[in-house]
Specification:
Blueprint (H helix, E strand, L loop, with lengths): L1 H22 L4 H50 L2 H6 L2 H43 L1 H8 L2 H38 L1 H6 L3 H54 L4 H42 L21 E8 L9 E8 L4 E6 L5 H8 L10 E3 L2 E2 L5 H5 L2 E4 L10 H5 L8 H10 L3 H5 L18 H14 L4 E5 L7 H14 L4 E5 L11 E6 L2 E6 L1 H7 L1 H19 L1
Parallel strand pairs: 3-8, 3-9, 6-7, 7-8
Antiparallel strand pairs: 1-2, 1-4, 4-5, 9-10
Helix pairs in contact: 1-2, 1-9, 2-4, 4-5, 4-6, 4-9, 5-8, 6-8, 6-9, 8-9, 13-15, 17-18
Length: 557
């Protein structure tokens, strides 16, 4: 505000000099002094404006950094259901494009708004001090500017939201394309993908042009109204100066104040656009902050002793959000500490769903899932998850070294520990054959590795955690049956005394399990040892015979 006040003083200095010239009392030295005042005021304005704009812009960057950190931390608290509703591209757009709009609104937008608001009000006050009637004439067109700004701002909001949504869609399309690059090349889809992205880009440009049409109308309107005010002042103010109602210095000062108001009037459109973009983006970001995980810790979580790993399931039924068909029905199960369990069944029988619930990725009803005799809904999520090492069907690896991916859950692990779990997962020799051994970088999502190598790397990572329970959800589907059998035997020895649950589509590798559970349509339909199930379960025996025949045929071929 000091900067704006100094700007408003300059027309007063000019008025005094012009009035002195009109009255004949001006001298070269007095005019030189007036010029020196103007130069000093201009220097003061420049220095102060530099510091206060840097302060405001620094604040906007700090706000951007704080928001980005809060967004990242909040996203990490959200559960699987959220990521099924929102794409990674949409989240990336929020953290880039939308956050940039908020930063511009809180930085340059705030600077321009303060400048325009204070300068506009103060200039009108100084003009009114010269002549209230002429001031009323000068500001008469301004209500039209306010109406036009209000009308166009509503359209800015809607059209900018559409632009941001299209940008999110483009970001997600690009992300998914790069992630599936090998598949796209294998199916010769480079040209169709490129055409689809180009089509989305054209839609994005079209939406931006529609936005620019509204935004572009604000500047001409504000400029026209500013020039209309200047025309009215020249007509009526010039007549008043000729008639002697105001002095020539007052007229010149009035024109200068009106010119100072030209920027606030011109800035209305720009500031309105920045604020509309910022508020639209902030609304999208706030919608993210309003998301709450469906899994919550109890209000007063108890102190939990070290959990041993006994699991009890009582009449557990589960339906995924947004679906009507139950994925699990009346599951009853007890898993004692140190047991090796196999889980088999057709695709869609509920095996993965059961793994998701055991690892607390979805909420379960009270009294349906117990760990060491405690209802999981009364335990902190972290306490339950820290007792389970989980290898999901879809292996997730980071674009980093082999060692980093194995030690993700235990970064302080010694090299001997890393090698031991790699040997147990039958991946050590293949790692040592790589150029840099355990320091080999494996690329995005492990792109440099085969499917079987990625799965075994994920198993090594789970083994390193040394937790009471390990759950492997079809984590060896990419290796042959003999290798799977060997790895399972190695894991069973390595995890002696701990609970191990392995899901597999192939029965033979689970033959050494203490117990095998057979699932069908969300129910447990049979359970027992391999030999017992061959006798008691026609369904199990049929699947085993079919798989054995296929394996024999593949060896014969």
């Amino acid at each position: 505000m000091t900067v704006d006040f100094l700007q408003l003083v300059i027309p007063r200095v000019i008025k005094a000099a012009v009035d002195a010239l009109q009255s004949g009392s001006a001298t070269p030295s007095s005019l030189l002094i007036s010029g020196a005042y103007i130069i000093l005021l201009a220097l003061g304005i420049a220095v102060l404006r530099f510091f206060w704009r840097n302060w405001i812009l620094g604040f906007s960057r700090s706000l951007e950094t704080d928001l980005r950190g809060r967004m990242f931390a909040h996203i990490l608290t959200l559960d699987r259901a959220f990521f099924q509703r929102r794409t990674a591209g949409e989240i990336m757009a929020l953290a880039t494009n939308d956050l940039s709009s908020v930063q511009l609104a809180s930085g340059m937008g705030l600077v321009a708004f303060v400048d325009a608001a204070f300068m506009g009000v103060a200039a009108i006050a100084f003009m009114a001090y010269i002549d209230p009637w002429l001031t009323a004439i000068a500001v008469a067109p301004m209500p039209l500017l306010a109406l036009m700004t209000r009308y166009l701002s509503a359209r800015l909001h809607r059209r900018f939201r559409k632009v941001q949504e299209q940008f999110s869609a483009m970001t997600e399309f690009a992300r998914s394309t790069f992630s599936a690059m090998r598949l796209i090349k294998a199916y010769n889809q480079e040209k169709p993908q490129s055409e689809r992205f180009e089509s989305m880009g054209k839609t994005y440009v079209r939406d931006n042009l529609r936005l620019s049409f509204v935004y572009g109308a604000l500047f001409p309107v504000s400029g026209f109204i500013g020039n209309a005010s200047l025309l009215l002042v020249l007509v009526f103010g010039g007549r008043m100066a000729i008639q002697g109602t105001i002095t020539l210095g007052d007229f010149v000062a009035f024109i200068n104040y009106l010119l100072l108001m030209t920027w606030p009037m011109m800035a209305v459109g720009w500031v309105a656009d920045l604020f509309q973009r910022g508020t639209t983006s902030l609304g999208r970001i706030q919608a993210l902050f309003d998301e709450r995980p469906s899994l919550q810790d109890p209000p007063a979580p108890p102190l939990v002793p070290a959990l041993r790993g006994e699991i009890q399931i009582c009449n557990l039924s589960f339906t995924y959000p947004g679906q009507t068909r139950a994925a699990l029905r009346d599951i009853k199960l007890e898993v004692h500490e140190g047991r090796f369990l196999g889980l088999v069944g057709r695709t869609g029988s509920g095996k993965t769903t059961l793994c998701h619930l055991l690892t607390r990725l979805y909420p379960v009803p009270d009294g349906s899932l117990f760990v060491d005799g405690r209802d999981v809904n009364g335990l902190p999520l972290a306490a339950v998850r820290e007792m389970i090492a989980y290898v999901p069907q879809e292996v997730i690896l980071f674009s980093d070294t082999v060692a980093f991916n194995i030690t993700m859950g235990k970064p302080e692990a010694a090299p001997e520990e890393i090698e031991a779990v790699a040997r147990a997962a039958a991946i050590h020799d293949e790692i040592m054959a790589m150029k840099d051994g355990y320091q080999t970088r494996i690329g995005e999502r492990g792109v440099k590795l085969s499917g079987g190598q990625r799965q075994r790397l994920a198993i090594a990572r789970a083994l390193l955690l040394n937790r009471p329970i390990i759950v492997i959800d079809d984590g060896l589907s990419a290796v042959d049956m003999e290798t799977e059998h060997a790895i399972i035997r190695s894991i069973a020895g390595y995890l002696k005394g701990r609970t191990c649950i392995i899901v597999s589509h192939r029965i033979a590798p689970l033959a050494d399990a203490h117990e095998i559970l057979v699932m069908e349509r969300g129910r447990l339909v049979a359970r027992g040892s391999h030999a017992e199930l061959l006798e008691a379960s026609p369904f199990y025996a049929t699947i085993y015979r079919q798989q054995s025949m296929r394996e024999e045929a593949s060896h014969a071929a």
